[in-house]
Amino acid sequence: MKVLILPDAQAAIQRAADIIARTVIAKPDAVLGLATGGTMLPLYKALAQRHRDEGLSFAKTTSFNLDEYIGLAPDHPCSYHHYMQEAFFAHVDIDPARAHLPKGDAPDPQAASLDYEALIEAAGGIDLQLLGIGQNGHIGFNEPTASLGSRTRIKTLTDSTRRANQRYFASFEETPRYAITTGVATILSSRKCLLVATGEDKAEAVANMVEGPVSAACPASALQFHARATIILDEAAASALKLTDYYENVHPQGQDSIFD
Ligand code: F6R
After folding, report:
1. Contact yes or no for 125/31 (Cβ under 8 A)
2. HSE of 235 in the Cβ direction (CA atoms, 13 Å)?
3. How far is Cα 36 from Cα 243, in angstroms, rounded to an integer?
4. With bands split at pLDDT 50, 70 and 90, how would you rate the model's confidence at 260?
5. Which H or E run contains 33?
6. Shortest CA distance to 126 belongs to which of 65, 68, 66, 189?
7. For the segment 114-140, what is each residue's pLDDT rounded down to a tens digit?
8. Minimum-distance ligand 1 atom for the alpha carbon of 34
9. Regarding beta strands 178-181 and 99-100, do their DSSP bridges make them parallel or antiparallel, or are they unpaired?
10. Which CATH fold would you assign to the domain 2-254?
11. What is the residue-averaged pLDDT of the chain?
C-alpha cells in the first residue's frame, strides 16, 4: 500500500485529482471505477475544473460506479445516478452511454447485479478504481463481514451507514436499506485502486484498513492484498496510524517515491 499523507483535505483532493488526470492523459479510453459520497464532491469539482481550464477530457473514458440504492429510479434526487449527474457528468465531456451505474430500480436487482459484473468484464475491467471509506470500514457498500471474495450483488446496509447517509433523505426510515454494490473481489480485480479519506471521523477505519489485520470486519483491509493500492489521506484521517513517520519518510508531502 502506498500511503500518502497531505496536510489538509484540499491538498489530498488535489493529489487524488492529479492521479486521476495522469491516468486519463496516459490512457484516454481508461475504464474508471467511480464512487459517491461527501468526500468525492470536491474531487469531482476539481476534475471538472481541470476539464474547463486545462482541457482534461473524459470523452473516451468508460465509467462504472460502485453502487446504487435499490428502489430509487435514476431521476430520484437521492439516487447515485442523480448525484453523479449533478456532481460530475454534467460538467465534463463523458459520453453518457458509457457512464454506468447499477440499476437500483431494476425489476430483478439480483439479475441486474450479474449483468453489471459482466458489463465491467466486457469493458476489459477497471483501470483505476476510486474509493471512499465508511466509518465502519466499508468500501462500496461492502459492509463489515461482507465476503472478501464477493462480486456485484445486493447488500443490506448497516444502521450506521444508513445513519451516515440519512442527511440526504427526509428521515432514517426513508433511507434505503438495500443497495447493489460491486463486491470486494470486483474492487480487487481493478488494475489500480485509489482510496481517498479526509477528516477525523475516518481515522479509526483508516487505521484498521492500513495497519489492522486483513478481515471481513473491515472490508477495506482487503486492499492490503492489492499490489497497486494508493491511499490518500489528510492529516486528520491519518491521525490514528502508528507508522506515520514511515509513510512520511517514504512519501514526503504525499509525493511519489521510486521505491514504495
Ligand atoms: C459511495 C461508496 C461509499 C462511500 C463511503 C464514504 O459510492 O461507495 O463507500 O465512499 O461511505 O462516504 P463519505 O465520503 O460520504 O464519507
Report:
1. yes
2. 6
3. 29
4. low
5. strand 31-34
6. 189
7. 999 999 999 999 999 999 999 999 999
8. 7
9. unpaired
10. Rossmann fold (3.40.50)
11. 97
SS3 233: strand
The grid coordinates listed for 149 are: 471474495
pLDDT at 259 over 90: no
> Is residue 107 pLDDT above 80, yes or no?
yes
For residue 38, the CA-to-ligand 1 centroid distance in Å is: 7
Q: Label residue 256 by pLDDT band (50, 70, 90).
A: confident
Beta carbons of 154 and 210 less than 8 angstroms apart: no
Give the Å distance between the CA of 35 and the centre of ligand 1.
7
Mean pLDDT across the stretch 42-68? Answer: 98
Residues with CB under 6 A from ligand 1: 35-39, 66-67, 132-134, 138-141
Q: Where are the domains of the chain?
A: 2-254
Which residue numbers are catalytic? 67, 136, 138, 143
Quick one: average pLDDT of 192-198? 98
> How many angstroms separate the CA atoms of 78 and 80, rounded?
7
Distance CA 73, CA 82 (A): 9
Letter for the amino acid at 138? H
64/163 Cα distance (integer angstroms)? 25
DSSP letter string over 82-121? HHHHHHTGGGS---GGGEE---TT-SSHHHHHHHHHHHHH
Whether 124 contacts 31, CB under 8 Å: yes
